[in-house]
Batch of 4 targets.
Target 1
Amino acid sequence: MSIAPERIVGADLMDIYRKVEAGERLSSEDGLRLCRTKNLTAVGYLANIVRERKHGQRTYFVRNQHINYTNICNKFCKFCSFYAKKGGPSPYEMTIEEVRNRLAWHKDVDVTEIHMVGGINPRLPYEYYMDLCRVVKEVYPHAHVKAFTAIEIEQIAQKGGVTHEQALKDLIEAGLDSLPGGGIEILSDRVHRELFGKKLGGDGWKSVARAAAKLGLMQYATMLYGHIETDEEVVSHLIQLRELQDETGHFVCFTPLSFHPEQTELAEQHAPTGNIDLRYVALSRLMLDNFEHIKSFWIMNTPEVTQTALWYGADDADGFVHEYEITYKEGDFGNKQQVLTLDRMTRMIREAGREPIERDSLYNEIKRDPAVQSKRERTLIPLSVS
């Protein structure tokens, strides 16, 4: 026997339920109410209506590898534990040959997406970024190169003395396939001033996004939450992205990113809870009606929260990842795993009652013969590879 929606949603949110059922766009006021209601189950229930309308039981994952090519950065963002600083991580910048070797570590996994981002390192020449794209295509000719936030594109263009558009054209020629879309954190002038004032602001970020769209370059979008943002700023961020998507139509997927305060200038703050993680996944699904996909990034919100998020609006569980150094390294701050094998990824999705679907970076389904899967994929791959 089905439960009447009002029993789950409650009388105070039934007007939003009727909008969701009718496929109507939610307002800023609706978004604020969803941020503030104590009825988290209602928010997830509403988001799941949209999620299943778009994707049914399907949950996507990708065979990916992250390359963080340098941690030298001149932006000094208060929320960042990644960049090299006194008492913090030692500085590094990978040579192209080191990148080549790092890529070769996981060739037997048949990686289909290489995700490359790094610090804003003023010492790196313009051609270095082109070579990063080229070396990926040399090692993985058919892999999708997802690289460089708008903040990096700004630096690359400045280093080359060219426009954003010309820098993007040169990167595309070298092998760039899409932009990861991070770097702006929250589209709020206040948060920008207080936490990352040396980085590109919201208008600049949108300018790079528009340049990418003009060239047909697909892009992803994110939101970093759990620091100093307000409910109003969260909702405003989502609406600004929604408006930009209305304009350009070039965003593929949206990922809410949970802030981890360890070893940052905001270390005294508590990390976001599972409640906030699930709420913002659901809120994103409900507000971003023109985004096809919502991702739960298991590295930041744990595999367990990701399983639940698949019923709170998320249809994507990201991928295998392998190395990821932006938030923390393996062994830091407890046992926070950075690798999921094929078996663990698909089991995580199936345990949640969803259907795992391997995808490429643009959400085309990839079908494989299980008989030829690498044995190595069925065991946990250690982070440290000599």
Target 2
Amino acid sequence: MLKDSDAPQDSAVNVKQLLDLTGRVAIVTGGSIGLGRQMAEGLAEMGANLVLCARKAERAHQAARELQQLGVKAISLACDVKDQTSVQEVVDATFSQFGRIDILINNAGISWGAPVEEMRLEDWNKVIETNLTGTFLCAQAAGKVMMRQGRGKIINIASVAGLGGAPPELPAIGYHASKGGVISFTKDLACKWAVHNIQVNAIAPGWFPTHMSNRVLERYKELFLSHIPLRRFGNEHDLKGAAVFLASDASNYVTGHVLVVDGGQSAW
């Protein structure tokens, strides 16, 4: 266990310094669109260099080119987070390019809608392997680099769906189960790797309009809004602050935490 004398001493007391990510290196899976792109942009705005990973390489290339306009280095790599070799190649390429890995955002994820009694095993497995096993594989590979460095930040993207059940209108039990698993994984890994000065936290977003959620939001807009105290969905900036906080020195004493960003949905 770390003793007080072993804890990293940070001379920065100014909040701007604590949140500054200049020169840090962040891997963001699923970073080309949606929530991943929003969080990557937030890190870049605070000075972090980026490695954007996505299954569709061209979309990641375009995102990297756009984020370079913020004055940081940004590269894109094709990656299938279900494939251990593919994940290791991303980690190796990142270290080769930058010589360090400071931040990992495990954002890649999918969902599949079907009633429980009709859910095909192959669809269940696809969701679990991407959302939960992919999070494990990326954390494992990047974590080995962070251990050697003696510091690191891992941010797993869970969901309010991982905090409880949902009505029959939302038949996505694989997604809910996977995100609940991500939350438990986050808490356990935080305990395991605290000795290496690696903070492991999760963000649990509520409803944000994305490529994956738009169809559901359009269909059930009024129902969902009635359960959100702020009476709106998340926008293109609402995750930036959470991601920057958990990626920065401002959260050095925060680990094993699930930061809910849902407009109050889970507070009812």
Target 3
Amino acid sequence: MNVGTLARSRQGSPAASPRIDPRIARRRREVAAEGIRRRRRWLWVLLVVVLVVGAAVLLVRSPLLDVDHVRAVGATRTGREAVLSAAAIQSGTQMTSVDLGAAERRIERLPWVADATVTRDWPGTVRINVIERVPVAVTDGPSPLLVDRDGRLLGSARGDEHLASIGPRPVGSAPGDVLASVQRARVRVVAAMPASLASEVETVSMDREGLVLVLGDGIVVEVGNTSRLRAKFDVVAARLAQPDRDTIATINVTAVDAPALTRKPTDGA
């Protein structure tokens, strides 16, 4: 073979593959294996999450977590049945589906209810706590209604409450309604009285000079406007504490710094 033929033979032969360092090859295999292990771990995590979420969904929708009992406390005047009816929470409803806020708002529309709190007591009880309004006065006339300090009509008077009358019940009014401003002013006066005086007041009315109270023993207290009520009631209490109270006809505190008092006429006068 001549030199030219040998040169052509070397030029036409394929290039030899470069030799890879065994350490690099081993590292590449390790990286590939780690990638496979990482993907498997993520698949397992995803599978566990799916199983947990699925189990949770099945659990909250299972009969184990539905409403078994609805309990109401504090509804002395409202009545338990009225509260449960307003709450409208049915047995068998999913606990997570109970709209607590909506139930509270419905219950608070009841005339006697000042505040309602509805809570979940897992696994299957809904609890309703009711705070009722306190009557401070009563309307006059047929079918009298009790009234709270905000002028809200509460319900029928039982007849054993010794509360001041604020005048006739408005025509067409019903429990849950709020009185007009004139009668609300009378209610506020009663609510501002010390308990000892409020227990003696029979009626609260209005004349040209302002508010007028009539006590159980017939004494008339002329209050006037609603300014300085505490000071006015302090003066009235002091006058009523006098030993000759039974001779008093009227107490006028319209000008609280210059109260006036009149006496009943004596026999033979």
Target 4
Amino acid sequence: MMSEQNFIYAILAMCGVMIAVKVIPILFCKGKIKNNFIKSFLEYVPFAVLTSMIIPEIFHSTSSVISATIGFIAAIILAYVGQSLVVVALSTTLIVFIAEQIMQWFR
């Protein structure tokens, strides 16, 4: 389980990445960015960094890797079919809770 201090560090790191990627181009680029590679890079880096920070923690956030995997797969499916972030988060939380209850029942 993630300690409270590590959780706060993770949130601060995510905030720092998001702010840096949004503010640095504003500070250093006076005109409009015309290079498609740079525009794509600046657009996708925050998602890649946040994903690389969040996915490993998913598998340590529950009492079982099985329930975490079930929730992860459910989140991917719900996001793929176009559900909103709130729906994905709440549905995945409920699915993991149900999976944990079922696993406790079989123990």
